[in-house]
Amino acid sequence: MKINFSTAANHLGSSAVREILKLTQGKDIISLAGGLPGEELFPMQAVRDAYSRALSADTSALQYGLTEGYAPLREQIAARLTKQGIPVSASEMILTTGSQQAIDLLCKILLDPGDAVLVEAPTYLAALQVLGSYRADIHIVQSDGHGMLPDHLEEQLRQQRPKLLYAVPTFNNPSGATWSKERREKTVELCRRYNVLILEDNPYGEITFDESPGAYPPTLAEIDRSSSSEPCVVYTGTFSKIVAPALRTGWIAGPAELIKVITKAKQAADLHSSAIDQRALSELLGFFDIEGHIREISRQYYSRMKLLSAELSFRSWNGTRFHEPRGGMFLWLTLSEQINTTKLLPFAVEQGVAFVPGEVFFSAQPLTNTMRLNFTHTPPELVPLAVQRLEKALAQYEQSELSFLH
Ligand SMILES: Cc1ncc(COP(=O)(O)O)c(C=O)c1O
Asked: Of 77, 95, 99, which is best to mutate to test ligand 1, by the most ligand atoms within 8 angstroms of its C-beta?
C-alpha cells in the first residue's frame, strides 16, 4: 500500500550521514561522532539508590503524574536556576522528555508553516529537524567565534520579521563556541526591541573547563531577567549531560502564559514524562552531591579535550584549524578547503574511526570542509589511535581524489 505521508512528515528529512554512522555500530570503530557522555562517569550507585528510594516511597511512584512534572523536582530545578541567576518560579517551568521535547513543544505552539526563525550556522542538527518539521522558514544570522554579528542580526530581524531566534550560545553543539557577554547583551536587546522570542538551549553550560570565578559570561536568560520584568528569553536545560541521558528529563522555563500553552501541547503529546524517572532524579538531588559530580566530570572532560587537541596539533594536516572549546563536549575541526568531510567519512569508517561531517549542521550554505569531534565518550587511551586512523583516512581520501582527477 502506498502511504500518503503528511507534508510535515515529508519535511522530517533523512540523513545519509546517519545511515553511514549506523554501519559503525558493533564494529571495531572508534566513534568520535555521537554526542554521548562518558559512560564510566555515570553516577551508577547514586542512580541505583535514587530509584530504590523512589520506589520504596509509596505506590504513587508508579501512578500517572502531572503534565507539568513531579512538583518537588520542579521546585528543586527552580531553586538551582535561581542560584544560577535565572529566577523562575515553578509555574514558569515545565519538565519535558529531554530538552529535545522542549524545543519541539515550543516550536509546535509558536510556528505556523512559513514563519521565519533565525539560527546560527552551524547549529544543533535536531533543532533544524524540528524547525523543518513545522515548515519554518529558516534564516541564518552570520556569526564569528564570539556570537551573532549585531548588524546582520538587526538586518535579519527587520527583513524577516521572525517569530523566534534559536541559539546555543554556550559551548555550542557542534562548534564548541561561546558567545561573549557583549554579544549576548546585544542579542537580547535587539530581540526585545523587535519583539522576538529567543530560545536559549543550554544543555552544556554546566560542563566548564575553567573553574575561576567569573570565567564565563551570564546566560541570555540571566541578562534578560536582570534587565526586564517581561522576559523574551525562553530557557531550556537538561539532566542528560550532567547525570545521564537515559533519564530523559529536561525542562523549559519562560513566561507563565507560554508555559500554560506548552503544558496543553505536552498533554496532547504524551500526558507527562516518566514519573518514576522524575522521582528518582528528585531523590538524587536530595542526597547526592550533584555539584561535586558536575565538577568531576568537567575535569575529566577537560583532560580528554586537551588530549584530543594535543593529538590533532601533532599532525601537520595542511590548512587544518580548530579552537579549544571552553566547556561542553565538542571540538570543531576545519580542514583545508579541498576536503569534503562527507566524502571523507566512508574512508574514515573503513579505517575504524567515525565523526560527523560538518555540513549536516547548516540549514544552508554548508562548510563542507568541517567536522564535529566528540571528546567525552571515547576512552582516553583510544584517542591517539582514533587520530592516527583519521590521518590514514585523509591520506587515502586524498589519493583517491587525486586519481579521480587524473
Ligand atoms: C544543543 C542540544 N540541545 C538539545 C539536546 C537534547 O538533549 P536531551 O533531549 O537529551 O535533553 C542536545 C543533545 O545532544 C543538544 O546538543
From this structure: 99
Assess whether the C-beta atom of 252 lies below 6 angstroms from ligand 1: no
- Residue 13 is predicted with a pLDDT of 67
- Looking at the predicted structure, is the pLDDT value of residue 405 above 70? no
Q: Among 19-33, 145-159, 351-365, whose mean pLDDT is lowest?
A: 19-33
Atom of ligand 1 nearest to the CA of 238: 11
236 lines ligand 1 (CB under 6 A): no
User: What is the per-residue pLDDT for 317?
Assistant: 83
Determine the atom of ligand 1 nearest the C-alpha atom of 97.
9
pTM for the model stands at 0.96
Q: How many Cβ atoms sit within 10 Å of the Cβ of residue 252?
A: 26
Q: What is the pLDDT of residues 262-283, one digit of tens each?
A: 999 999 999 999 999 999 999 9
Q: How far is CA 88 from CA 94, 168, 180, 257, in A?
A: 11, 20, 24, 13
Give the pLDDT score at 229.
81
Residue 73, all three cell numbers: 523536582
Higher per-residue confidence, 15 vs 40: 40
99 lines ligand 1 (CB under 6 A): yes
The reply to whether ligand 1 has any atom less than 6 angstroms from the CB of 238 is: yes
pLDDT at residue 314 tops 70: yes
What does the pLDDT average to over 369-375?
Answer: 97
**From the CA of 361, how far away is ligand 1's center (Å)?**
14
Angle separating helix axes 98-110 and 125-133, nearest 10 degrees: 30
